[in-house]
Write a structure and sequence with these properties.
- The protein is α+β, with helices and mostly antiparallel strands.
- The chain has one domain.
- It starts with a helix and ends in a 16-residue tail after the last strand.
């Protein structure tokens, strides 16, 4: 199964649009901390992807879930969010996911997103960074498909958790843009089948099992399919 190039391209454009909307909230002060930025980003993705129809009868749906009490003292956070993809086409059926930790750009963390060339993330090897390494190691103990999302006013960058845990000095790591990351997720270069979900209920259980602050489930299916499809979330604007 291959998604046609224009589908992957349009999917990436929608991710870019969601990032732009989230950046506006960041710069206006509406979203200040990582959990708020993350939830805003996931909601923005859902708003743009839910109901998107490609020209060859592929339809996308999205569902965002946030557990009750995730900000209480009793909630011991694992990943900041869980991302799940389900592809339900006649010729290709798969579901898989990834875990993500989120960090804002700071004096310890820098993001470089050039118009051309490689996206990069720089880290100062400090006690705060060692804390991030601990969080990354915790995710990796649950799944090798674990990543760190870096939120910068310049854009969002994604670094593999394994790269973060491997750093022993102040240095720079390769990263991907949010658009590039989600496009590779759609094309199945990224994702752990153990984090897949075949229903909303299974997805919600996964989010809670991995102590994630939030989760997003994205589905690609035939527009005329009679099989499983995501139910529209009650607050969906579509």
């Amino acid at each position: 199964m291959l998604f046609r190039k224009f589908i992957v391209s349009e999917f990436g454009r929608l991710i870019d649009d969601a990032q732009t909307a989230t950046l506006k909230e960041m710069t206006s002060g509406e979203s200040r901390d990582e959990p708020t930025i993350t939830k805003g980003f996931l909601d923005a993705i859902k708003y743009r992807i839910n109901g998107f129809h490609a020209r060859d009868d592929v339809e996308f749906r999205a569902y965002v879930f946030q557990p009750q009490g995730y900000r209480s003292d009793e909630w011991v956070a694992g990943a900041d969010f869980l991302g799940v993809l389900r592809v339900n086409l006649d010729e290709f059926i798969v579901t898989k996911g990834f875990l993500a930790q989120a960090k804002k750009e700071s004096r310890e963390i820098g993001v470089e997103i050039p118009v051309r060339g490689a996206t990069k993330a720089s880290f100062n090897y400090t006690e705060d960074f060692k804390g991030l390494q601990g969080q990354a190691k915790k995710m990796l103990s649950q799944s090798p498909s674990s990543y760190v999302f870096l939120y910068s006013p310049k854009g969002f960058a994604v670094v593999p958790a394994i790269s973060v845990t491997s750093l022993t000095v102040t240095d720079t790591l390769y990263a991907k843009t949010a658009r590039g990351f989600f496009q590779e997720f759609l094309m199945c270069f990224i994702g752990d089948k153990r984090l897949g979900a075949f229903s909303n209920a299974e997805f919600e259980r996964l989010v809670q099992e991995f102590r994630a602050g939030a989760g997003i489930l994205i589905e690609a299916r035939r527009s005329d399919s009679d099989g499983y499809s995501l139910t529209r979330h009650r607050d969906s604007p579509i």
